[in-house]
Design goal:
It is a single chain. Helix content is about 55%, strand content about 0%. The protein has eight helices and no strands. The chain starts with 9 loop residues before the first helix and ends in a 31-residue tail after the last helix.
Length: about 170
């Protein structure tokens, strides 16, 4: 994902900050018309411009990134299970030391649930916590040394006993 992923969000951030395009150009130190060109797709959004716009629209960088990842995850997640079935791929094993509680919390965060966000408010260094989640997610994508999951056949247990069919009755007419 690059800075261009956020291009369509710039106008919303600017409007929420109650700034005109000219005011945001000036606040960010951009040349006249840059924000308008970015919003209209005439100019690509660079990483430096993205960070400048986030700062000048009074947003926090890390939660802004997490918001976008959550939105992307929410759109992509419905494809995962059907495609795993189609390709015959099991989910990868969890990273060493990952607890079920942590996994559920991370999944809820990426799908837009507010449960983990409320928990984060109690943590003193919220940005460090978000950064840890973000870096963990990035590591999951780029980790190439993890072993491939082995498919395990389920044991069928004891076979079901079939009920014997009742004897056929002959017609005596």
């Amino acid at each position: 994902m690059d800075a261009g992923f956020f291009q369509d969000r710039v106008k919303g951030w600017r409007i929420a900050a109650e700034l005109t395009q000219v005011e945001l150009d000036e606040a960010c130190g951009f040349s006249k018309g840059t924000v308008g060109d970015i919003e209209q797709g005439k100019k690509s959004l660079s990483e430096e411009q993205l960070v400048a716009i986030v700062i000048c629209t009074n947003r926090d960088l890390l939660p802004t990134l997490m918001e976008s990842f959550g939105s992307l995850y929410k759109r992509l997640q419905p494809f995962e299970a059907p495609l795993r079935r189609r390709f015959g791929k099991e989910p990868p094993p969890p990273p060493h030391g990952e607890t079920e509680n942590y996994r559920q919390g991370r999944d809820r965060l990426f799908s837009g649930a507010d449960i983990l966000i409320k928990e984060m408010l109690r943590i003193s260094d919220r940005n460090a916590f978000l950064a840890e989640i973000l870096f963990d997610a990035a590591a999951r994508v780029t980790r190439s040394d993890k072993p491939k999951p082995q498919r395990v056949k389920k044991k069928s247990g004891t076979p079901k006993k079939r009920k014997p069919k009742p004897p056929a009755q002959a017609d005596t007419a």
